[in-house]
Design a protein that fits this description.
Blueprint: E1 5-7, H1 15-22, E2 30-32, H2 42-45, H3 63-76, E3 84-88, H4 103-113, E4 118-123, H5 126-139, H6 146-151, H7 170-180, E5 185-189, H8 190-195, H9 197-208, H10 229-234, H11 256-272, H12 276-293, H13 298-308
Helix pairs in contact: 4-7, 5-12
């Protein structure tokens, strides 16, 4: 098997595009280490969760489950040994909803299982990240206003919260440099992908010493785009009444009538609310994030530019 590529995120850095357009079985260079032909790696999930679906203990390497999953994947993918195997899962860099506390233990498991792997880390300017991630949080039925989302702290340890330290990228990058060697880790800005995707692919090609080809049309395929920002923000309380998946719950909040009514109301709002209100909502949230930021990441981003030998300032990393 060729040297594995570990794509660990971050979140909101074109991970879904990479998983569904580049790290796919139909690509001539890559083969996902997954039971599936595209999407998040099922092997990647084994670095996060045990066989029952629980988060793995920080003291557990989960080696037995990882070996089983790799054997299953290898048996069904004859091309695995001719291409670069890829483990791609954005949660390997930590879950932003709770400050990414498992990022270091994931790194330890990855290095233990694939000590000679190469690593791809994609970063994103923090204010831009927060704007995108907050609307995804609302889409996933998050209930906090932008003020509470940004200010909420771990006062109640029963409720995980966002931590601004998760977006100080230096610590995670340094840790991967130490584990795998800086020559085996590439850090690319999401902004490069947005402005010049071919250059992004070119730099990855040089790093892997492979000729990676991507159809120009693939760059125009947008994945996981969210809309209805006004409705999702100002009517987020309605989602309390909507059942999650097939889960059965006898409480009044999940009563069929409430569930049905909330879905109908949301559909009507999605259809009737003018799209220009989305832009207005985005600008309000963007301004609030800028007020909260006030140069919070300026010094760490300056150090980050030196660490990865790339000037990030013209992409707003200040």
């Amino acid at each position: 098997m060729k040297r594995v590529l570990l794509h660990i995120g971050y979140h909101k850095t074109a991970t879904s595009w990479l998983q569904n357009q580049l790290f796919v079985s139909t690509n001539t260079v890559f083969e996902p280490l997954s039971k599936n032909s595209h999407g998040q790696s099922t092997l990647g999930r084994k670095f996060l969760f045990n066989h029952e679906g629980y988060l793995i203990s920080s003291f557990d390497l989960n080696t037995s489950e990882l070996n089983k999953e790799l054997e299953t994947i290898s048996a069904t993918k004859p091309n695995l040994y001719n291409k670069i195997p890829v483990v791609s899962h954005e949660n390997l860099s930590g879950n932003p909803c709770c400050g990414g506390p498992d990022a270091m233990s994931c790194a330890r498991r990855l290095h233990n299982f694939f000590p000679d792997a190469r690593v791809l880390i994609v970063i994103r300017e923090q204010k831009s990240f927060l704007l995108s991630f907050y609307f995804q949080y609302l889409h996933m039925r998050g209930m906090k206003s932008i003020n509470k989302f940004l200010k909420n702290r771990f006062d109640d340890l029963k409720i995980p919260s966002f931590s601004p330290d998760h977006l100080i990228y230096n610590g995670l990058i340094k840790h991967y440099f130490e584990l795998f060697g800086s020559e085996n880790v590439i850090v690319l800005p999401y902004e490069l992908f947005r402005t010049n995707p071919q250059q992004f692919i070119s730099e990855l090609s040089v790093f892997l010493n492979e000729n990676i080809k991507v159809d120009e049309k693939a760059f125009d395929r947008h994945i996981n785009e969210k809309d209805h920002h006004f409705v999702n923000y100002y009517f987020r309380a309605l989602k309390v009444f909507i059942k999650r998946g097939n889960r059965r719950d006898s409480s009044i909040i999940n009563n069929f009538v409430f569930d049905f009514s909330a879905r109908i109301i949301l559909k009507l709002l999605y259809a009737l609310v003018p799209k220009k209100l989305d832009k207005w909502t985005i600008n309000r949230v963007k301004n609030r994030i800028a007020q909260w930021d006030r140069g919070r990441y300026k010094e760490s981003n300056r150090q980050l530019s030196k660490l990865i030998a790339r000037d990030l300032s013209h992409w707003g990393y200040y």
